[in-house]
Amino acid sequence: MRNQMLKAAGLGHKSHESEKGVVLSPRLQLDFDCPARHHFSVVFAADAALPSSWDCPVCWTVSTRTDGTLVDVSAPKHVRTHWEMLRERRSLPELETLLAERLALLRVGDIGPGAPRPLNPRTRHAA
């Protein structure tokens, strides 16, 4: 019975697996200097996009790479507004027509806060 017991490990415990035969992926170590004169290194995967700055683990200020390499930061992509996306689908005359139709329904009382609600077929009525 003792040989069949499972070993449990909580958070932060070392793995029971052997590290023999494990091939690690290629790595690259970058050095950073912070304005408060802290020097630290960060390890990245060799094929990862390398940053030009990193937060200092001591004082949390933005630190620059020791080798002085700057990454070209392109302008952020323009985020389209709801109006711009709507204008791609409909022209101004179509929008005017749609607005007139909806306002007419609102004035008659077919839609809006005071409009009668349709019966929901899922609700149960007492018989």
UniProtKB/TrEMBL annotation:
UniProt keyword annotation of Phosphoprotein present: no
GO molecular function: bacterial-type RNA polymerase core enzyme binding; zinc ion binding
Cross-referenced Gene3D superfamilies: RNA polymerase-binding protein A
Positions that bind Zn(2+): 34, 38, 56, 59
Biological process (GO), any one: positive regulation of DNA-templated transcription
This protein's record includes keyword Transcription: yes
UniProt cofactor note: Bind 1 Zn(2+) per subunit.
Keywords for this protein: Metal-binding, Transcription, Transcription regulation, Zinc
Named cofactor requirement(s): Zn(2+)
Assembly, per entry: Forms a complex with the RNAP catalytic core and with free principal sigma factors.
Function comment: Binds to RNA polymerase (RNAP), stimulating transcription from principal, but not alternative sigma factor promoters.
Family as reported in the entry's similarity comment: Belongs to the RNA polymerase-binding protein RbpA family.
Name the record gives this protein: RNA polymerase-binding protein RbpA
